[in-house]
Amino acid sequence: MISQKYKEMLSAKSVIRQMSEWAVGRAKEIGSENVFDFSLGNPSVAVPQAFTDKMIALLQERDTMELHGYSQSQGIPSVRLKFAEFLNRTYGMDYTAEHLFMTTGAAGAVAHAIRAVTQPGDEVITFAPFFPEYNHYVNQTGAVLKVVPADTKQFQIHFEEFEKLLNPKTMAVLVNTPNNPSGIVYSTETIKKLAQLLEAKQKEYGHDIFLISDEPYRDIIFGGVEAPYVSKYYDNSLSCYSFAKSLSIPGERLGYIAANPNCTDSTLISPMCAQISRGIGHNCPPSIIQIAVAEVLGLTSELSVYETNMNIIYDTLVQLGFEVVKPGGTFYIFPRALEKDSVAFCKKAMNYDLVLVPGDTFGCPGYFRMAYCIETEKVERAMPALRKFVAQEYGVR
Amino acid sequence: MISQKYKEMLSAKSVIRQMSEWAVGRAKEIGSENVFDFSLGNPSVAVPQAFTDKMIALLQERDTMELHGYSQSQGIPSVRLKFAEFLNRTYGMDYTAEHLFMTTGAAGAVAHAIRAVTQPGDEVITFAPFFPEYNHYVNQTGAVLKVVPADTKQFQIHFEEFEKLLNPKTMAVLVNTPNNPSGIVYSTETIKKLAQLLEAKQKEYGHDIFLISDEPYRDIIFGGVEAPYVSKYYDNSLSCYSFAKSLSIPGERLGYIAANPNCTDSTLISPMCAQISRGIGHNCPPSIIQIAVAEVLGLTSELSVYETNMNIIYDTLVQLGFEVVKPGGTFYIFPRALEKDSVAFCKKAMNYDLVLVPGDTFGCPGYFRMAYCIETEKVERAMPALRKFVAQEYGVR
Asked: Is the ipTM of this structure higher than 0.90?
């Protein structure tokens, strides 16, 4: 009999998706070049040619049974080893292949990590503003997501509010740096303070608290910004990564969990994740993508366009007097709306063919997100529309 | 805190995996050519050149952002349409793209289908012998798997035993034809009788009972065997398919669910499955594989080797007096062991470097499975080992 639970979920459409669908409809009326769609976080720079070349070479040269064969349930062993070695070189860690579990993107990584370190009824804490899919990743496990209100001054961590939420049922904390939607990178100071607090609470409660670090934007860092590797500062850490943004291959679904070698049961996390996969039936990301990515580790798309776009938007916002914290990475910016009701603000923007996403959907009302993973030329053309919008609606020039 | 549930699952290793690991170890001692490993169901014929050519052409010609971009959460719309049209041409169905949901293999398809049509506490019935991963697909949803004992005469359905298990809590029935491990194809008569019984029970209980049809071996049918399309005979049917076996690409994780256009909420099943994916964080099979497979629909690997292998083994088994039903498809055969304890039987076979899997793991003790997806030359060389084994251990010549 049809599941009422999933049927009812159909009526609650994602706000981001709704905005994006409106943009598609509007594009049919006035041409897509005239709709300034800042709603979706899709990479907008080409896949590196070296990745494409590697894929073609694998298809031409490798035995097809090996190339397209079943990977082991934790991922292809040689790929896991290469990923571990790369992380060790890059971040000074001590991973072995045993600590790595291949996932279908960061989404699969975070959802698996939560299952591995919580049980139904446990609490998972995250920090606003946050990626709204976290609600689904956590709730479907039977655990409960608790949200720390945003530090709207710097979009680091509001530790005072965080301490209020910590309690013996807290089994995991979920962070996302560089952050979607704020674009902010957590400072070393923030991460050290977080680690100290969690260590103290582990002692106080007498159980582990895992830090799940969602890092799909780890390679999109703007000039001069320091981006500490979270797992470096806290033993019970699980790093969740995806190649979606760094290689512009979101559709190929490749990511991983790297369990800190010093965490509890560090070599059991990966085989436990394989057991989790068994139950949901998805078993491993695609073999050819695992193999190809392992051969181009460290390579990224030409990501500098995101910083160029950010600067254009940030400068305009500052000129217009917006309250906004300068992003340190990602392809998002999260300014304060010009009225308290950010949904109303974003609706008015649609009259100027500007598609913005209200902060409410990220647990931070009163703000709005712009995803600037679009052509720079279009970002430039959008600025007059933004100026016109705030001038006509709010008298801001 | 580490999940005890998944940690405990680590100690319960799959029997098939254990046998396969033993075979790998033994191969290191005596050379892999001397180990007759019939344990694993991995395709053994090359990927068709036309598929490889198509992949290369896509990589050379398509815009990389389009080729590797996010697919919609139900799968790429144009791919879903092509799959629907192919099924309509091949089986005389009336699918539209709306009825199709792209999955990561048949595993993802079956696991999603169960979530879509059951709630925790509901019962799902399947038929021995059955693929042991069904336990995981069902149990992780909170539903309960009930197993109908095998019809060991023909390995069709034991309807008398099936009727005993049907009750108002039965919300889904899971079939697998052509069958792993028996190799048997359900006859039209079996499927018609199953459909009639389920229709009567739907009326009696006043609710839908969905028929989930797991069909990864649908294209491996031996000469002269009729293989009816299950969904043709029962409206509330969900067909679960995978390209793993037909194209020899198990590692690329592509399959689908096709919801019968006449089933309850037929166009809601696919979007509901997208909601299920959100919660487990896996979201869609790889884009490039979706696109490439859609362009070679109907193409298969050179599958005839499996029938050749089957005939060699079947003839030998019959000569030796084994009780065995001739497979109609797949790359499995499921004879009765020469002693009641089929685990003991398979252990003795290991002394002859024959790796067989006891039927206990498929819910059918006293039988054993041979997976003959290996080179024909090796199958031929294995027959003297089989003869020697049964002669020395059981005096059978």
From this structure: yes
